[in-house]
Amino acid sequence: MERRKFVIGLGALASGAAAATGTGAFTAAELSGRQANISVVNDTNGLIGLKADPDTELVRDNGGANENELVIDFNPSSGNGQGVNPNSKYQVGGLGGIGNLDEVPGNPTLDTTIEDLAIDTDSDIENHYAFSLLNQSGSDQAVEVTYEANENFPDEAEVYMVSKYEEGANDSKETSALVATATPDAREASILYSDDTDFSTDVDSGTDVKVTILVVTGDAATDDDLGGSIVVHAGSHDEFSTADQD
Predict the structure, then answer these.
(1) Is residue 63 a part of any domain in this protein?
(2) Taken in order 94, 96, 98, 103, is the CA torsion positive or negative?
(3) Contact present, 197 and 144 (Cβ < 8 Å)
(4) Apex CA 83: angle with CA 79 and CA 89, to 5°?
(5) Strand, coil or helix: what is 101?
(6) Is residue 218 a contact partner of residue 145, using CB atoms and an 8 Å limit?
(7) Is 90 part of a structural domain of the chain?
(8) What is the mean pLDDT of each run of 10 residues along the chain (246 residues)?
(9) Which among 42, 84, 162, 210 has most CB atoms closer than 10 A?
(10) What backbone torsions phi and psi does residue 4 show, to the nearest 5 degrees?
C-alpha cells in the first residue's frame, strides 16, 4: 500500500497466458481471453480501507495527487492555524472505552503509559477517532500500521497512535499502540493485529480498527517538522514487524 502523508508542522504556527510443457500428451498450450477486473478506488473503498473521521478537519480523505488518499494535516485549509504549538499536546480522537490504557506503553524509555499522556480519556474512541482502518476484503487479515517519522524529526517531540479493535476477545487483543520519536531505532513504529502475535488477533472481514493520534511537541523549535508517512501492511506481507508472521 502506498505511503499516506502525515503533516505536522511546528510553525509560527492477473491476467496473462499460461504455458505448459512436459511429458504429457501435448507440448504447449495457451489459454487467453480470461478477464481481470482490477479497479483503482479511493482509500475509503479499498479492500484494506482508510477512512477519516468526518468530524475532524485535521484528517481528510482527499489527500495525494489525485485527491483520493488519506492525509493527516495539522495545517488545515480553513482557519489561520499553521501547525501545533511548542510545549503542547494535541489529541485527535478520544481514548475512552479502552480498558487497559494504564498498561499501554507510552515512551518505552520512560515509566509512562498512554493513560499518563492522554488529555481526553472521556470521549469514546468508537465514536471519536482520527481515522479507521477497514477490512473490506472477503477474509480475515493480519494488519500492521507503521508510522515512519521524517528524518529530521526533533529530539523533543513524540507522536503516538493508539488503536482499538472492538471485536477483540479482551483488552489486550483490542488495543495496540505505537510511539514515534527521534531515536533512530524508535523512529519507525507500528500498530499490529495478527493471529501470529501473542496477545493479538487478525482483523475480521467486515470490521474496522479505530485509531487516535496524540502529538507531544516538547521543546521542539518553530518550523520543526513532526511529520512522516503511514504505511499499511496486510495479509502475509514480507515486511511485517513480527519475525514469525507467515
Answers:
(1) yes
(2) positive
(3) no
(4) 115
(5) helix
(6) no
(7) yes
(8) 64 44 62 75 91 93 91 81 89 94 77 90 96 95 88 87 91 83 64 88 96 92 90 81 49
(9) 162
(10) -110, 135
Q: Total domain count for the chain?
A: 1
Amino acid type, 148: E
DSSP string, 25-42: S-S---------------
pLDDT at position 2: 61
Q: How does DSSP assign 106-165, residue by residue?
A: SSTTTT-BHHHH-S--SSBTTTS-SEEEEE-SSS-B-EEEEEEE-TT--TT-EEEEEEE-
Among 218, 91, 88, 211, CA closest to 153: 218
53: left (phi over 0), alpha (psi -120 to 50) or beta: beta
Question: Which amino acid does the sequence have at 140?
Answer: D
CA-CA distance, 61 to 70, in Å (whole number)?
4
Does a structural domain hold residue 93?
yes
pLDDT at 7: 66
242: Cα within 13 Å, side-chain hemisphere: 21
3-state secondary structure of 102: helix
Cβ-based neighbour number of residue 136 at 10 Å:
16
**Residue 131 cell numbers, joined:** 481515522
Residue 104 sits in which domain range? 4-12+40-234
Bridge-based pairing of strands 69-73 and 4-7 is parallel
Cβ atoms 158, 181 nearer than 8 A: yes
Q: What is the C-alpha separation between 160 and 215, in angstroms, rounded?
A: 6
Does any domain span residue 241? no
Give residue 157's region: left, alpha or beta (phi > 0; psi -120 to 50): beta
For residue 41, the one-letter residue type is: V
Contact 70, 229 (CB under 8 A): no
